[in-house]
User: What shape does this take?
Amino acid sequence: MDRDRFAEHVAALARLGRLQPPCLAMSPTIIRDKAARCGAGLPGARVFYAVKANDDPEVVRVVAEAGLGFEVGSVSELNEVVHLGVAPERVISSNPIKAPEFIAYAHQHGVRMFTFDSRAEVDKLVKLAPGCEAVVRLAVPNEGSDWPLSGKFGVDFGPAVELLAYAKVRGLNAVGINFHVGSQCTNLQSWDTAIGLAAKLRDEARDIALDFRVLNIGGGYPAQYLKPIPTVDEIEDRIAKALARWFPGGVEVLIEPGRYLVGDAGVFVTRVIGKAQRQDGLWVMIDVGVFNGLAEALGGIRYEFVPLREGRKVRCILAGPSCDGFDVIDREVQMVEPEVGDIVLIRTAGAYTTVYAARFNGFPLPMVKVVEDTMF
Ligand SMILES: Cc1ncc(COP(=O)(O)O)c(C=O)c1O
Assistant: This one.
């Protein structure tokens, strides 16, 4: 199932009234396909789905059945995967700053690998997850990523060495490094640079006799929004070359995809609730906005909008349903002018959408519906 065919199927089901807006239709076939591809170019690599991207129980079940592991950051995310019977060895936590209750709960449930990037976090791990495996989050360039994560997380080279030494002295099993090139990364050079930096840190760590064996390369693999993206094969080919260059003796590679795994697998089914011609253009309001599913639009993620109507494309200013001036999704949408009541599909909506949604102003949370091929 490719994403175009899935969008056509979703359109057909919406026309038949079998997918009522607002809802997010998810293709398990696309998720399975992505799960099979991710890591295929990096023999031996283990893949952990970042649950934060889409924590719908059925989506998580599809990922679990595909045999992937999970990256979780909260008690609720952990409970979800535990209830599916996922073994604790298949679960890690890579948020560098975790709530103390969560660390204790995860440790109690057998989660063994955690990330840190501060002394305070090392102290928490020593107390709440004694003897755990710990990796330091290294700050790496995030240029070329549409959703950068640098700044809030990660430490530079010098502090990273000190922290690894500190973790070791405090009795943690400091086993390696974690980095994230930023979400929706289309710059292959970013992985190269990050792996080179990680190798330098490994060399420094030799002086403190660290048992360095883990390299967690985080997420960042992109989904297909409006701009061209590299394929997963191209990304992993580049990563494999960097690993061969910088880690010729081998290293245990962990990958934590979120957006790549579920982004392309989701199509929002929305309805136009109003229109207005104003001085700055034609405004179209739909029943999903930045507060109930499209929060990433505020940070610059741009989606493809597909009204189920033929005609000439015009410029529209697309906005959400709430009575709030920030609820504007995109000011430069080129699409066929829809009428009130029309369905508008939003493509590549499977990641970081419903997980952010709130009931602000009383508008409903979009339902997530996993659409098996048998529904067509
Ligand atoms: C620790 C960690 N791992 C993995 C991910 C997933 O990243 P992406 O969705 O870019 O694949 C994130 C995203 O924020 C993250 O914070």
